[in-house]
Amino acid sequence: MKTAGHAKAGMSLCAVALLALSLILPGCKLGEQKKSSKGTSTSVNTSTTSTNTAVTTLKTILVSWSPNRESAVNTTGGGYKVYYSKTDATVSVVTSSVVNVPFVSGTLSPTTAQLTGLTAGTYFVKVVAFSSRNTAGSVSAISSLVVP
Amino acid sequence: MKRKKLLLRSFIAFLLLTGSPLSQGAATRHARDVLAGKSYVEGEVLVKLSTQRSFAVARQNISDRFSARKATALNDFGLTQVKIRAGLSVADAIDELRRDPSVESVQPNYIYKMAATPDDTQFSSQWGAFNSAQAIAAGTYSTHNGSGSGAIAGKDMDLKTAWDTITDCSSIKVAVIDSGVNYTQEDLVANLWTDNPSYPKYGYDFVDNDVDPMDGNGHGTHVSGTIGAVGNNAKGVAGVCWKAKIMALKVFDATGAGGTTANIVRAIDFAIGQGAKVINMSLTGLVFDAAQEAAILRASNAGIVIVAAAGNGGSDQIGDNNDVTPSYPCNSAHSNVICVAALDQAYDLATFSNFGATSVDIGAPGTNILSAWNGAYADIGGFPALNAWTYLTANWAGVTCNLSAVATSFLSSPSTYCNGGGVFTNNLIPASIQTTAHFNSTTYSGYSSLMWSFSTFLDLDEAGDVFAVGYRKTDGNPFAVGGNGVTIDAIDGSSGGFSLAMSYDVTACQGSNCSMGVYVETNASQGADEFGVGIFNMHVKALTVSTSTYNTINGTSMATPHVTGLVAMIMAHNPRYSIADVIESVKSGGVAASSLSGKSTTAKAASASGSLNYIIAPTGLTLAVKP
User: For residues B372 and B176, what is the distance between their CA atoms, to the nearest angstrom?
Assistant: First the structure.
C-alpha cells in the first residue's frame, strides 16, 4: 500500500512505477510533474482494497485575456488581478482567491495567469484591470470552467 | 505574548513588502526597470532597516560594508537616508542594498510636486477648470455666478487633478471648425498646427478660400483657447491642454455667417486629410444634412472623434429638446459624435442649453467662460452720409427720421417710408420696382477683418419682394448685371415694427475701390401692409487684432471645447485607444449631474480626472485546463 507519506518523501507512486517497472499505472502520464503534498500540483490517494489505484491530480487553469489599452494599466503601479472561486459564482473580491499580475516591464502588463492547485469542479473567474490611480479598477465578465 | 509580537512584525513586513516594488520580497526585477520614467533624487536612497538588530548598528553596517557616504536616521522606525558612494547609480545601489540582510526594504527618494495649478494670470476666473464658487466679475450669466448666487465649489472638470497626469496633448491634432483663430494671440500662438508648410497660418479659410483663417468674430479663438491655451505661461488662461496642436478651419465670417454645408464638409475633409484626431464643432443646424452626415462618417472611418454643441435654444434663448427638434451635428446618427450641453457654476443645466435624453451625451461648463479673444472692432468711416448715396431718386431718399424722439439720418425707400415722426405706414412702396442705392467707399486696405453694419426697418411682401445687400470691388452699382458684384444677403417680410441689426463681413472688399449697396424689388401685386425699407446707424468697422485680449461669454459653444480638450487629453494619454474607447472614457468617466437626468444619455458632467482614471473592463477572457 502506498500512502501520501511516500509522496512527501519526494517520489510519487507514478514515478516509482514508471522507473521500476516501465508500466503506466492508471492516472499516470509520462512527463507529469510531481511535487510534495504541500506543493501545488499533485497529491496521491490509493485504494486500500483492490489492485486499482486512484490518483487525484491537482489541476491548473490557464487564464488569458486581451490587453487593456490604458497606459496606466500598462505601467508601474498598474496590472491585473485574477480572482477565482469554486463556490461563489459572483467571484467576490473579498472572499475569492486572487493571483496578482502586475506590470513588470516593456509596453504591456502580462495578460496570462495560472490558477494552480485546483481540484475537480466548476471554477468561476474574473479579471480586474487596475492602475495606481484607480486601484479598484474595472472588472471583466465572469467566465467559468469545469475542471475534470 | 511572544506570538503576538511575531504576528505584529509579520504584519508590518507585509505592509512594506506590498507597498514597495523594490522590497526584498519582490527582488526578481532589476531596479532599472522599476525606476524608468520616475523622478527621484540622484545619489541617495531610502532604506527601511530590519528590526533584527539595533538600528544604530545596522546603519553603521551599511556605512561600512556598503561604503555609503552617510546614513542618516529619518525616524524611529528604521527609515534611513543613505547617501550612496560616488559612481554608483540609484538603481545599482537599490539592487545592492536589497541583498543586505539588515535592510528590510529600499526605495528611491522620490520627487513629488504640488498638484498642478498653473500660474496663468486669469486662472482664478476659470471656474470650469477649478470651481471655488468664485464670482466671475465679467460674467453676464447671473444665475449661480459665485457663492453669493448659489455657485457650488467643486462642480468643475477637475482639471487640477488631471494635470498631475497629463498637460501635453500636442501629439493629437485638434481641428476647430469655427470662425477661425486669432493666431497671434499670446496664449495660442505656440499651440497651433504647424505640420504643413502649405498652410503657414495654421489652417484654412473656407469662407474666402485662402490660407489665412484669421478670426474676425472671436468665437473660434475663444473655443480654441478653452481647448488649448498655453498653460502655466504666466499669461491669460490655461487650456484643458497646456500644449496642443490646433488646426484653424474657418467656416464662419466675422458676423458668424458663412457656415454652409459646402464649407463645413470641406473643412471636415481637410481635417481628415491633415490627420486631425478630434474635431470641435461648436455649431448647429436645424435640418438633417446628408452631405454633412457623410463627412462625419468619413471622419469616423479615419479615427476622428467629433465633439458637437447641443445648441442654445431658439430665438427665445431657452433651451430646446433636441429629441423633439433635432440639431445637427449633435443629432448625428454616427457613433463618433459626442454632443455637449452647457452647465452653470452649480452644474444646473444652463437656461439656454438644449438637451435630449437620447441625443445629448454629457454636460460641461458653459456659462461665464473666460478664454482668448481676437481683438476689438473700431469705426474707420470711409463712406458718405446716408443722404449722399447714389440712388434712383424716385425710389430712395436720404431723410431725417424721428426715431424714439431722436432725429436720425435715414436712407428710405420709398422716400415717404418714414414720415419724419417715426411712423412707417404713410404710403405703400410702389409695385414692380427694381431699385438700388449704393456708395463708393474709400479704398480699404490692410485690415484683417472688415465689417459693414447697419440697422433696418422692413415692411415687404413675403412672396416676391426682396431686400438685398451687396458689394463689388469697383465703383458703381453692386447689383448691375455683369458687374461682378457679390450679393451677401437677401431677405423679405416684415421686421414687425422693430429694427433689425444687420452685419456683414466685407473683408474681401479691400485693396481697390469698394462699392456697397442695397437693392429693393417688389412684385406686381402689393398688399395693404408693404410699406418699404429704411436703414440707419451705419458703420464700417475694422478689427484691430490683439495679442492679449480675452473675453467671458456663454453658450454650448463654450461647453463643447471643454470636452474636445478632454478627448485630446485622453487620446494623448492612451494612444492605443480606439474611438469607441475614447467615447466610453468620456461618458463613463464623467460625474453624476442630476440636472442632466432624463436630459442626456449619461446624466453626467465631463470630468477630466474621472476619464483619465477610467479603466475599460478587460475582455477576451479565456480559460483552459493546463494539459
Answer: 14
